Request: fold
Amino acid sequence: MDVILNLNELQLDALREVGNIGAGHAATVLSQMLNQRVEMEVPRISIVPLGEICETIGGAELPMVGVYMRVFGDVTCRMLYLYPRNSALSIADFMIGRPKRESVVIGEIEGSALKELANILTGAYVYAFSAFTKLNMLSSVPGLAFDMAGAILNSVLADIGEQTDYALVIETKLSVADINATGHFFLVPDPDSLTLILDALGVKGGCQQSSGSECQN
Reply:
């Protein structure tokens, strides 16, 4: 039985709380780096079949920026961030000091800014999980892709689908200046690793829960 499919409300709530702490840490780091107030929150966590991810984020034809990485150490998992292309361009322009946020393509400079953002976000989430669970977790260098959502997912689906058919989806809202961006963070842990994380958080794995389980504010 797929462990991620069997998460109950208590387990999802514990994961959402860690996600909110990670988002708060990321917001603090970004605020210091940009010298601008940054707010981040995690309003929802849900379990989604890998084949339905495109539907979750608005459709396979939606232009997106994707950031993909692996986590190693005591636990292993895959992470995929997806942000709408226009939101990603606005964030990149803000990070590199373009006040009018006028970019229409993601070049080398914009890509570097988005990779830096990905490193901060990933580091914050990995730090939050590691601090709460006392488990050693290290993230790989992120890979960046700019394409339609379906094309990005197809390029990584074979890898993230090796161990499970489901992902834990963490909706992430980022606000800075006049930019409000909603991205989706997909966490695909190996089954044994998810059980280890839940045990370390004090919410044992193995409870039955139907697909589509969701935890909201």
Confidence is low (pLDDT under 50) at residues 206-217. Strands lie at 38-49, 63-73, 77-84, 137-139, 143-148, 166-176, 179-189, 214-216.
